[in-house]
Write a structure and sequence with these properties.
By secondary structure, the chain is mainly alpha-helical. Helix content is 59%, strand content 6%. The protein is built from 45 helices and 15 strands. The protein has a 6-stranded parallel β-sheet, sandwiched between helices. A 4-stranded mixed β-sheet has the order 11-10-9-15. It has a 3-stranded antiparallel β-sheet with strand order 12-14-13. Helix 17 packs across helix 20, helix 20 packs antiparallel against helix 21 and helix 21 packs antiparallel against helix 22. The two termini are 19 Å apart.
């Protein structure tokens, strides 16, 4: 990559969390413009895009001096002198609106040339719709917002602290997914244990010092005083309009001020072309604190009351009630609920708002109790929701309101213990369809959105997958039924997945909408579908009281394992047990059939009996799709395919419109894998992937350059996973993503054959002892004395981790020393930033760096400061952005009485933080001494400081 200007390019270790949903949108664009406020993660996203482009990328970061058009173009030409395929310009806002922007338009956007990627805090003024520009992608601050599952992954894989899903959701909600807010929270809590971090999340507020400093410096510090005062006074509105602000402030120029705030991307955005605006939630929290400090608590509360009264005059009752509550005017809240309770509680934001109210207030108000009941149901905790409904019924004095709450509660009870009454409501029909004979509840379309949804669910439960998918696409939205559209999208997504469609983007969009709507139960299913969880999601559902969600998430996990060639009878047995407890025979029929198929794939002794029983149960309960799967399982009862059940399964699947996934059919059509014989004594394979790539067979080094590029890439991919079985779909997705499935699999077969000839040229067809196949998986087998440095490295880490857990410091010291010695450099460095190696390279780098920290803690615990310094310098050589290593290094120098070296380390640490755009409160102040108890690699209390912000 060619760099110029104030470059911000970096190695893979500094790229933070990979953002595939955004990189995918950027990949095919001729011009990409990323427009977002400070701290949104623009620079990191641009770095990830640059890493994917390799040597064909020129990077330029603009600065205030680039308003000189001649200077700007001259530096751009210098950056682009080697004819890059992609030109990236970060901080483009410095040139927007001036002659330099016009010069850039002439230089980079007139006619064909390199692809252009811009990062800016304000929107460029040139016309992006010109035909000659080509395909344009614009990413906004909302696009860059970290979704709650991304927050969870960020803290786990980048920061090294696992956040439970509920804590990740709470942090995401408070920060609104703002990258800088997330990173600043990490910096402020990285020394805390899990319990203290959980308490910090519960206590989140705009008063957090790490947020106040960043916002004051980076956002508000760049605004004129008039705009800062305008923000402080108008932040009380959730939806900000010029008319509201003019009336509240008794002025007439609010429209211009709001437009200027949006132009400056001061955490201010509009989704309707400037008719209304929204301040970022983190900014609102900070402004609330600033207003209290400016006016005092009593006067700030009076200001909130004034704004709430204005909102009430505008009939914006839900927002008015929330603002009265913020000012703790509970009498006004009660009055609004008494007169406009249905409006207030029916607002989509009310469930989240009610969760933050004092329990004593909620317990005494029927409307707030009703909102709480709805929130519990949306989270999947039906039994708790039913109890809250009963409490609301007792509080309502009006018979019609009490009856309305009782009707809502009955629709929850049918999913618990009560019997459905199919003539009363469409939810009763869905519940009845889950019990048996789902096709009996496929009703004629009467134009009702709920009836259409029940029809769609019944079709899917019966196995009419294509029909269910088509009906989901034709569904009618109904604003009177909360979240119905989102659940319809989920059903359609499941149908599309079974039909073999790629549904990743659909799941991303649905999860984002579910998160905004507070639909926790739906969000968990999105995580299960996106393979971010499976059995883990089912366990989370059970812990949250969402037993229906647990059954669905468990089924998704078991189905994905089956498709991946890893059938698990135990996973399906857990689903069956959940279905029994839920009195849900229809999904039980499916689970029994898939369990039978898994049993057949595993050659279980009772596979034939399971298949026969599953087919009989599916027939009895009227679930034709489950019966087709049972027939398929019955066809795998011997080494030779049973033709009659196989033909019957396919015929039934075609009849009902249910595609049989190829991987399931392969269980029948492919012969059973032959168990490989142990490799001969002389088939000795040695692989090195760390620091360089080396292959040795029987002591002779081979030259992979003699292979074709794709075959060589196949060998390297399998080498970094040596000793493990790799599914062919993973190989295809990594190495042939642009080919059709048939072409990719053919290319894989050709490459595998070439690798086998390369490793064992004298071995006949089907007799390879090094590159083995088992079903749909491949592996470089490590037999006897064969070795792979990645395997040795990870084994040493695991030994060290286990030894630390039981307090065996001598064994841990030996293992960690071995791991650091084995880590001779980055994983497959010659492969650059290809997508399939970057994540694994980052993971191993992190593990190696943390191993150095753990080793240093052991050395310091033995008062060997010099040895600890060597280990920490090794750790920082591997990852110079590991915060814990810097702090321990300073402490180690202090322990060694080398104060000059400690001072140099402090300066280098501060320089590193400044490079990341992080202001240390006091980089000189560090721990006076190290923790005496060493921690295992991967569990260090101070993982790398790797900013998620741009």
């Amino acid at each position: 990559m060619v760099e110029s200007g104030a470059t911000a390019s970096s190695g893979g270790g500094r790229l933070g969390l990979q953002r595939p949903r955004l990189l995918h949108r950027m990949a095919d664009a001729d011009v990409t413009v990323v427009i977002a406020p400070a701290g949104s993660g623009k620079t990191h996203l641009l770095q990830q895009h640059a890493a994917a482009g390799g040597a064909g990328v020129a990077w330029y970061r603009a600065d205030p001096d680039d308003i000189d058009a001649e200077r700007f173009v001259r530096r751009l030409r210098a950056a682009s002198e080697h004819g890059p395929r992609t030109l990236i310009v970060d901080d483009f806002h410095f040139v927007v609106g001036g002659t330099a922007e016009a010069a850039f338009e002439r230089f980079a956007l007139s006619g064909p040339g390199a692809r252009v990627v811009l990062g800016s805090r304000v929107r460029p003024t040139f016309n992006l719709m010109r035909a000659e520009i080509g395909r344009v992608t614009v990413l906004s601050g909302d696009d860059l917002r970290f979704r709650c599952w991304e927050v969870e992954e960020l803290f786990t894989s980048v920061y090294g602290h696992r956040l439970p899903p509920d804590e990740a959701a709470a942090l995401s909600r408070f920060t609104d997914g703002w990258a800088a807010g997330l990173h600043l929270f990490h910096l402020g809590t990285q020394t805390l244990g899990a319990g203290a971090r959980r308490a910090a999340i519960r206590a989140l507020s705009g008063r957090a010092r790490y947020l106040q400093g960043y916002l004051a410096r980076t956002v508000l510090g760049e605004l004129p005083a008039e705009l800062c005062e305008f923000l402080r006074r108008t932040h009380v509105f959730e939806t900000v309009t010029a008319e509201r602000c003019d009336r509240l402030l008794d002025r007439t120029d609010s429209a211009a001020l709001l437009a200027e705030l949006e132009r400056r991307q001061a955490l201010t955005s509009s989704d309707d072309d400037g008719h209304s605006f929204r301040y970022h939630e983190v900014l609102r929290q900070h402004l609330a604190s600033a207003l209290r400090e400016e006016l005092g608590a009593a006067e700030a509360a009076r200001w909130c009351r004034k704004a709430a009264t204005q909102l009430e005059d505008e009939h914006a009752y839900p927002e008015a009630a929330r603002l009265f509550a913020r000012a703790e005017h509970w009498t006004e809240v009660a009055r609004l609920l008494n007169t406009h309770g249905a409006r207030v509680v029916g607002d989509p934001r009310s469930p989240v708002w009610c969760a933050g109210l004092p329990a004593s207030v909620v317990e005494q108000d029927p409307w707030l109790s009703l909102a709480t009941a709805r929130r519990e149901v949306a989270s999947g905790n039906l039994r708790q929701g039913a109890q809250r409904y009963r409490h609301a019924e007792r509080l309502f004095s009006e018979p019609d309101l009490r009856d309305a709450a009782a009707r809502e509660r009955r629709l929850v009870d049918i999913w618990l213990d009560a019997a459905p009454q199919v003539e009363l409501h469409w939810l009763d029909r869905i519940r009845a369809a889950s019990m048996r004979r789902p096709l009996d509840y496929v009703d004629d379309d009467n134009g009702c959105a709920g009836t259409a949804f029940a029809h769609t669910c019944a079709l899917l439960l019966a196995g009419h997958v294509r029909g269910a998918g088509q009906r989901a696409q034709l569904s009618v939205d109904d604003a009177t039924v909360p979240m119905l559209d989102l659940w319809t999208q989920l059903v359609g997504t499941i149908a599309a997945m079974v039909c073999g469609e790629h549904v990743g983007m659909r799941i991303e969009l649905l999860a984002g909408e579910a998160e905004r709507a507070g639909a926790t139960a739906l969000l968990r299913q999105c995580r299960a579908l996106s393979q971010l969880g499976g059995s883990e999601v089912a366990a989370e559902c059970d812990a949250a009281g969402d037993h229906w969600g647990a059954a669905l998430a468990g089924a998704i996990a078991a189905y994905r394992a089956l498709l991946a060639g890893e059938p698990s009878m135990s996973l399906w047995r857990a689903v069956i047990e959940r279905c029994v407890r839920l009195r849900a025979d229809t999904p039980k029929a499916w689970a029994l059939s898939f369990e039978a198929l898994a049993a057949a794939a595993e050659n279980a002794g009772d596979a034939e009996t399971k298949a026969t029983c599953a087919e009989a149960f599916a027939r009895a309960t009227g679930v034709p799709g489950a019966r087709a799967i049972a027939l398929l399982a019955n066809a795998v009862r011997t080494d030779n395919v049973a033709a009659a059940p196989f033909a019957a399964a396919r015929a039934l699947a075609v009849e009902i419109g249910m595609p049989l996934p190829r991987s399931l059919v392969d269980l029948v059509s492919e012969p059973k894998p032959v168990v490989a014989l142990p490799a001969p004594e002389n088939a000795l394979l040695r692989l090195r992937c760390l620091g360089a790539y080396v292959v040795e067979v029987d002591g002779f080094e081979l030259d992979p350059r003699t292979l074709r590029p794709r075959a060589a890439a196949t060998l390297r991919y399998l080498s970094m996973r040596a000793g493990r079985w790799v599914h062919r779909d993973d190989l295809v997705a990594a190495l042939w993503p642009d080919l059709s499935e048939a072409q990719a699999r053919q290319s894989l077969q050709v490459s595998v054959s070439a690798v086998r000839r390369f490793l064992e040229p004298d071995t006949g067809r089907g007799k390879s002892t090094l590159l083995m196949r088992r079903g749909e998986t491949y592996s470089l087998v490590l037999n006897g004395r064969s070795t792979a440095d990645v395997v040795t490295f990870e084994a040493a880490l695991e030994t060290g981790r286990s030894a630390l857990q039981i307090g065996d410091e001598d064994r841990a010291h030996s293992a960690l020393t071995t791991a650091l010695a084995e880590y001779r450099g980055e994983l497959l460095p010659s492969d650059g930033a290809v997508e399939w190696v970057v994540a694994e390279r980052d993971r191993l780098r992190t593990q190696a760096s943390l191993a150095g920290v753990a080793l240093a803690e052991l050395e310091l615990g033995r008062d060997r400061a010099a040895a600890a310094i060597d280990a920490l310098r090794r750790s920082l050589d591997i990852d110079p952005y590991l915060d814990r290593a810097w702090r321990l290094l300073i402490s180690a120098y202090q322990r060694a009485d080398d104060l000059a070296a400690a001072e140099r380390a402090r300066r280098d640490y501060a320089k590193m933080l400044a490079e990341l755009g992080v202001q240390s409160a006091n980089p000189v102040t560090v721990l006076a001494g190290p923790t005496r108890t060493a921690r295992a690699p991967g569990t260090s209390p101070r993982p790398r400081v790797r900013s998620a912000a741009g």
